[in-house]
């Protein structure tokens, strides 16, 4: 059993360690630091569009089967790790509305107390909201967008699925979060 494990470790880790380092740097690190899936999605798309066809073509053309097997292991590692990073980020992104709800509640409380919406989120501090809560499971938090125009408030938090392309907006009329892709 030990010899079997050692050979698998060499094949799946030691021989392709640069692939592991690169895929972790490109997918897992941004997911942990920024809670975003953009780079993971790009790696996954690249593997599906380029990596898989290249590996299949290599088996047909190249005679060195050990090299082909190593290439296939690299493709599998890139695909699985980036897919897992995407799934993890998208699952944790569903927590964003709940994590950002204290901001919406503080804005509503401010309005009830003062008869109007605050001009900035800083106006909520310290009475209604001592500090902005984390709105995403990540080391670095995205910017919470808040403004008041013509007496109507707008509150939005970028979604981890697409940061500038996708967001959660709070509907003050319906008192619920809406996700826009």
Automatic annotation (TrEMBL):
Keyword set, alphabetical order: Membrane, Transmembrane, Transmembrane helix
- The domain of life is Bacteria
Transmembrane found in the keyword field: yes
Q: What residues form the membrane-spanning segments?
A: 12-33, 39-62, 71-90
The name this protein goes by in its record: Uncharacterized protein
Species assigned in the record:
Metapseudomonas boanensis
């Amino acid at each position: 059993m030990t010899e079997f494990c050692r050979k698998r470790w060499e094949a799946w880790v030691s021989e392709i360690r640069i692939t592991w380092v690169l895929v972790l740097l490109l997918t897992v690190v941004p997911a942990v630091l920024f809670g975003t899936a953009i780079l993971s999605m790009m790696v996954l798309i690249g593997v599906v569009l380029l990596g898989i066809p290249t590996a299949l073509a290599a088996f047909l053309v190249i005679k060195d089967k050990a090299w082909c097997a190593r290439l296939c292991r690299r493709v599998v590692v890139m695909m699985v790790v980036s897919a897992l990073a995407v799934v993890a980020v998208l699952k944790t992104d569903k927590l964003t509305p709940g994590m950002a709800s204290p901001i919406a509640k503080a804005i509503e409380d401010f309005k009830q107390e003062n008869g109007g919406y605050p001009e900035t989120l800083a106006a909520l501090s310290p009475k209604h909201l001592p500090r902005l809560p984390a709105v995403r499971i990540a080391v670095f938090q995205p910017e919470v967008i808040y403004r008041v125009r013509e007496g109507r408030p707008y509150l939005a938090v970028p979604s981890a699925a697409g940061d500038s392309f996708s967001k959660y907006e709070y509907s003050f009329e319906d008192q619920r979060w809406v996700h826009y892709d």
